[in-house]
Amino acid sequence: xxIAVADVAVSSGDPSLSRGVPKILSDDLxxxxxxxxxxxxxxxxxxxxxxxxxKPLSFPGWKMIGAEAVVIGNVSVRGDRLSIExxxxxxxxxxxxxxxxxxxxxxxxxxIVHRFANEIVYTFTGVxxxxxxxxxxxxxxxxxxxxxxxxxxxxxxxxxxxxxxRSYNLFPRWSPDGQWLAYTSYRxxxxxxxxxxxxxxxxxxxxxxxxxxxxxxxxxxxxxxxAGVSQAGNSDIYRVRVVGGAVxxxxxxxxxxxxxxxxxxxxxxxxxxxxxxxxxxxxxTIGVGGETRISSGTGYATSPSWSxxxxxxxYTARSGGRFVVMTVAPDGTGTREVASAxxxxxxxxxxxxxxxxxxxxxxxxxxxxxxxxxxxGRRQRILVSGLGDVGSPAWSPGR
Length: 399
Known about the structure:
Layout lengths: L1 E4 L3 E4 L4 H14 L5 E2 L21 H6 L4 E10 L2 E10 L4 E10 L4 H17 L8 E7 L7 E6 L6 E2 L7 E6 L5 E6 L6 E6 L5 E5 L5 E6 L5 E8 L2 E8 L5 E5 L5 E6 L5 E6 L6 E6 L5 E3 L7 E6 L6 E7 L2 E7 L7 E4 L5 E7 L5 E8 L2 E8 L5 E6 L2 E8 L4
Parallel strand pairs: 1-3, 1-4, 2-4
Antiparallel strand pairs: 4-5, 5-6, 7-8, 7-30, 8-9, 10-11, 11-12, 12-13, 14-15, 15-16, 16-17, 18-19, 19-20, 20-21, 22-23, 23-24, 24-25, 26-27, 27-28, 28-29
Helix pairs in contact: 1-3
């Protein structure tokens, strides 16, 4: 879809917003494979505040430069008050497709523009965009021996450290409402799974029993947290009530049972077991005996992540001496390789909320990065680099 994002009118406030707002929006749209952006140098019409009070756009001019859709905006900043109106037009028909008015603080500008980018994607696809979502991950902080939790926007902007205790903080997992992160921390000397409120920083312990432990994911209603927990040298999978702390064992065996990933409907769970002699991915129905192995053709498979639609499961597999990212249907059919590298390993996939992309860890000697790749493997980009030993990415729910 050829689309033009015009410089916005600035009724009051910093004049640089005229280019700053469309830059954020254009960068968002460029991350999809849905739009071809018409360069600003080709635009023939200047958008003013009058276009929001009755003056019509010159649609023939926008069509002349090849635009089938046009985005205009009008922004005003007075003190700590930001107001912005955004409109999307069909340039061919000259009709308004969607218009929104937002208010907030200047610090919320980026998130507001992300919201309108999601409206544009929804208008053309019927599926809400993922702009404004975040990826939680772990990395070393400077020369510290431990690992801290970090968050970064899906556009690679607004990187921030979540924990800062110089210990090992591992395996972040999002609650379904995107308000909480479950993770394992060794800051007291023993591994404990905590829930941390992303906005306030408030924390509470949720799993103390057992030895090593790692959260795998929440039930869709957020009532249960699934985790692999070792006791007496044997690791099984439990689910723990987030409120009340009741514990149920949901998968067990003589060996290793770890990395639970509940399905979007909460009825099934993907997990890793080495009962066949090497780690492999299995699917079981919650509360029903029997499991189905879904990874095949590899001597090592781990880190399953269920897609939001429930039709695919991504996981890490060993292939040709390297780790690669694969996806497979929940019944074990239709295995596809999505991400691989000749000079390194691709691990720990996590689906975007719209199921169109995966974030994963790329590692090679002395270097690591987070990358985002489309699920068909055709487009990919670096999300985070420059931090030490990055890993365990987890994509937040849609917002």
